[in-house]
Every structure is written in structure tokens, then in C-alpha cells.
Amino acid sequence: MAGKLSSMTSSARSLHRIRVGSAPDSWGVWFPDDPRQVPWQRFLDEVAEAGYEWIELGPYGYLPTDPARLADETARRGLRVSAGTVFTGLHHGPAVWEETWAHVSAIAGLTRAMGAEHLVVIPSFWRDDKTGQVRESSTLTARQWRDLAAQTERLGREVRERYGLRIVVHPHADTHIDTEENVARFLDATDPRDVSLCLDTGHYAYCGGDSVKLIETYGERIGYLHLKQVDPEVLAGVVAEDLPFGPAVGRGVMCEPPSGVPALEPVLAAAQALDVDLFAIVEQDMYPCPPDRPLPIARRTRRFLRSCGA
């Protein structure tokens, strides 16, 4: 027994640089207001009950946007905020800057007021995640790549200078920053002083990437983690049918750990080896979902991550 306890203690100590949390996404929340989503009070109650201490804001307007009220609601449940999230279409160049900044500034202000230090930046979708309607080409021109890099760097500087936050760009299915090739191209084109990466293990696997390889290759660019797994059998059907991301989620492509890929233990070990403090926020996409489904999954996932030492 003593040897087993010693091994468990050593495992737990090995991931001491990783701070685990969860997000509204793991409760089926994709929109500020939707009758199919659980009320925000229930999300806060249940995420705390599941054993998490850190949360993200989720879609702006889902949680209270008054900093004093949100601070009270989170504090009395023993919760703290790790990041806010914004959506951008910066490959469209300077023409969309003012509109982008109007969206970003309100969220950045609330994020900073809650004591967080990160802003997750998600690129715009090239096709509608519900209907599958193609909005634009799935590939960028050379000019669009230059605009994406330059405008993202500008966003990183402005957010840092005005709000003291660091942006972490989130590769995402059905966006232009998705595959291993496109993620590498984006990182190579941007200044690490201004732009870091939010590695979402599920989205990266969905798009064919290897999370451990990415961490080992671009370790200095990894600023944040989203922990997620993909069901490979469901994914095979999604790819074969060329399903948009929304219907793929409805089919269950993102699954409960540890039943999918990638294995999270090697990802966490590779992240720990960077020897920097990192948030690892659980995000199991399952919109929409029955209101009683998220909490049991969240409890089991938290127990699983503890068994990994996180």
C-alpha cells in the first residue's frame, strides 16, 4: 500500500504545472441564450460540484456580464475564471478591424476584471456549423494568410497593451487554422511575442493532427490547452460524409475521456515537460444535450484526470 501511495503522489506531483478546469461547452452551452441549454446558475453549481476550480466565460452573455455580480457568483462556489473567448475573421484584413475590436473589447474587459490572463481567439468558420452552407473558400489565398497573420499580431498587441491579456489562438474544425499544415503555417507566420496557441486536443485530432508532436515541435508557442477527445469511428463517418462540425457534434464525434483519441496522459506529460504553468480546460462539445447528462460526465472526467496526476 505504501508503494502504491508513493507512486500516486509522484504521479500527482509530476503534473504540478497543469491547472485543470472546465467550461460551459462541457454543459452543452454554445450560445449566450438558448432554451436547450442549462441555466447559467446550474452550470456554476454543477461545475463546482464536479470538482473543478477554474472555468472559462463561454459565449459572452451566458454568464453575467457585470463583473461584481459574476465575481460574487463564482467566489461563493469556489470558482475562478481562466479565460474569455472571442470569435474573429481576421483573414479579411484591416476592413474588419473596428468590428472585431468592438466584439473583443467588451469580452476582454470582463475577462480582465475577473482576474484572468488569457483570451481564447477562435477563427471564423468557412461554412455554417449548423446548416453546412459554405460561406467562403475553405482555403486562404496568400494575401489572406498575410492579413490573418498581421491582424492577429495586432490583436495580440492591442489586447496585451490595453487589458494585460495574452491571446491564445484556437485551431478549430471548419476554420482556416485546422490541420497540422495550416497550424504550422500560421505559427511560422506570427510573432511569438504577440501570438500563442490554444491547443485543443479534440479539434486537432479531428483535423488529423498529433497533439504530442505539436507540443514537442512548437512548445514555446503553447500557451493554453483544451482537453477533448474524438471518437475515431464516428469521425470516420463524419469525414466520409463531409459533415459540418455542428452535425458532427450532434452525432457524438466528441466523446467522454478516456474512450477516444488522443490519449490525454501523453499530452499532459508533454505539456508538463515544457516546464511552464498551463491551464488545461476540459471541453467536451455536446450541443445540444439533455440537462442531466453533463454532471455525471464531468465527475467521471475529473476523476480520470486526477488518475493522470492532474
CATH architecture type: Alpha-Beta Barrel
Our measurement of the CA-to-CA distance between the termini, rounded to an integer number of angstroms, reads 21 Å
Number of domains: 1
Envelope shape: globular
- Helix amount, in percent? 40-55%
Our estimate of the beta-strand percent is: 15-25%
The CATH topology is TIM Barrel
Oligomeric state, counting identical vs distinct chains: single chain
Q: Describe the main β-sheet briefly.
A: 8 strands, parallel, barrel
Roughly how many Å is the radius of gyration?
19 Å
Structural class: alpha/beta
The helix count comes to 12
Task: State the strand order across the main sheet.
Answer: 1-2-3-4-5-6-7-10
Task: Give a count of the beta strands, DSSP E runs of length 2 or more.
Answer: 10
The low-confidence parts are 1-13
Order of helices and strands: HEHEHEHEHEHEHHEEHHEHEH
What is the CATH superfamily label? Answer: Divalent-metal-dependent TIM barrel enzymes
Mean of the pLDDT scores?
Answer: 95
Query: Can you tell me the CATH class?
Result: Alpha Beta
SSE map:
Elements: H1 2-14, E1 18-22, H2 40-49, E2 54-56, H3 67-75, E3 80-88, H4 97-113, E4 118-123, H5 142-163, E5 166-169, H6 180-189, E6 196-200, H7 201-206, H8 211-217, E7 222-227, E8 229-230, H9 232-241, H10 245-250, E9 254-255, H11 264-272, E10 278-282, H12 294-307
Parallel strand pairs: 1-2, 1-10, 2-3, 3-4, 4-5, 5-6, 6-7, 7-10
Antiparallel strand pairs: 8-9
Helix pairs in contact: 4-5, 8-11
Structure commentary:
The chain is α/β, with parallel strands linked by helices and 310 residues long. It has one domain (15-307): TIM Barrel, CATH 3.20.20.150. 43% of the residues lie in helices and 15% in strands. It has helices at 2-14, 40-49, 67-75, 97-113, 142-163, 180-189, 201-206, 211-217, 232-241, 245-250, 264-272, 294-307; strands at residues 18-22, 54-56, 80-88, 118-123, 166-169, 196-200, 222-227, 229-230, 254-255, 278-282. The protein has an eight-stranded parallel beta barrel with strand order 1-2-3-4-5-6-7-10, surrounded by five helices. Strands 8-9 form a two-stranded antiparallel sheet. Helix 8 runs parallel beside helix 11 (264-272). The two termini are 21 Å apart. Residues 1-13 have low confidence and may be disordered.
